[in-house]
Specification:
Layout lengths: L8 H21 L9 E5 L5 H7 L4 E5 L3 H10 L1 H5 L3 E4 L6 H5 L5 E7 L8 H11 E11 L28 H10 L6 H10 L3 H10 L2 E11 L3 H4 L5 E2 L2 H4 L4 H5 L2 E8 L1
Parallel strand pairs: 1-2, 1-4, 2-3, 4-5
Antiparallel strand pairs: 5-8, 6-7, 6-8
Helix pairs in contact: 1-2
Length: 263
């Protein structure tokens, strides 16, 4: 069963905005103060709900997404922010060399929320972000670890599979066959992309070091803050003891918040 908000751009934007205002922005602000001079880039911005919280703080924001459908929804829903010159939406590939030149050294804050797990060459994107961020800037990343109950994003499924945890870790042929058996034709490309790019907490932290970043702050959640809207669950931080146990924490941590910066 696909979550209802996937087909309701306004509701999705409102929920992302509230989640950003209450959790993401304060998390970033605790390391990098947010004010009217802050320039923010979000890669994989969707309709712009996360950025709306930063615009309300006076920031100037750029949202990039490969989905023209989502960008067009965002332009319709955030008309005033666009008209005020506080927001720009672009449908572009950040690897496009000419476009890439326009972003170099421009941003105080870069945001990737639930985006990294969709990217095939994760090291490549990390090095690209390194070029876009100012020397004293920070990057916020949040992603669900592959091994967590819904780490395959199976909540996107339109069938009963959307409520089933952990089966995304079946061997690839079995998983693919199960999705086809339940008629998940429309969601199949996105679901299989997560299988191809699966990211764990340990692999992410290794990637941070390999790309010459350092971790300024991290927070693991037993219950993802966005689950307040998706499943009517109260957000809960992961227990410190569990958060300290490599590998095992991936199974019981529903999202990870990180702030990283250049070494």
């Amino acid at each position: 069963m696909a979550l209802y908000y996937h087909n309701n751009p306004l509701l999705k934007l409102q929920q992302q905005f509230e989640n950003s205002k209450n959790y993401i922005l304060p998390f970033i602000d605790s390391v990098k103060p947010i004010n009217a001079s802050t320039k923010v880039l979000e890669v994989g911005c969707g309709e712009g709900g996360v950025l709306k919280a930063f615009i309300d703080k006076g920031c100037t924001c750029l949202g990039i997404d490969l989905s023209e459908f989502k960008i067009n929804n965002g332009k319709e829903l955030l008309k005033q922010e666009l008209a005020d010159g506080k927001l720009e939406f672009i449908t572009k590939d950040i690897y496009d060399e000419e476009f890439k030149k326009t972003l170099i050294g421009k941003f105080d804050v870069i945001i990737l929320k639930d985006t990294l797990e969709h990217i095939y060459d994760q090291k490549k994107v990390m090095f690209a972000l390194r070029e876009f961020i100012k020397d004293d800037g920070v990057i916020f990343m949040a992603f669900p670890a592959w091994r967590m109950p819904f780490g395959g994003h199976q909540q996107m499924c339109k069938s009963k599979l959307g409520k089933m945890p952990f089966y995304h870790m079946l061997p690839r042929p079995l998983y693919l066959g199960l999705l086809k058996l339940f008629g998940e034709k429309e969601t199949l490309p996105d679901l299989m992309s997560i299988v191809d790019t699966q990211i764990s907490i340990d692999r992410f932290e290794k990637l941070v070091k390999e790309c010459n970043f350092k971790i300024d702050k991290r927070q693991f959640y037993l219950i993802n803050p966005i689950y307040k809207y998706k499943f009517n669950l109260k957000p809960r931080e992961q227990f410190k003891l569990i958060a300290a146990i490599p590998w095992f924490r991936d199974f019981v941590t529903t999202t990870n918040y990180y702030i990283i910066s250049k070494v």
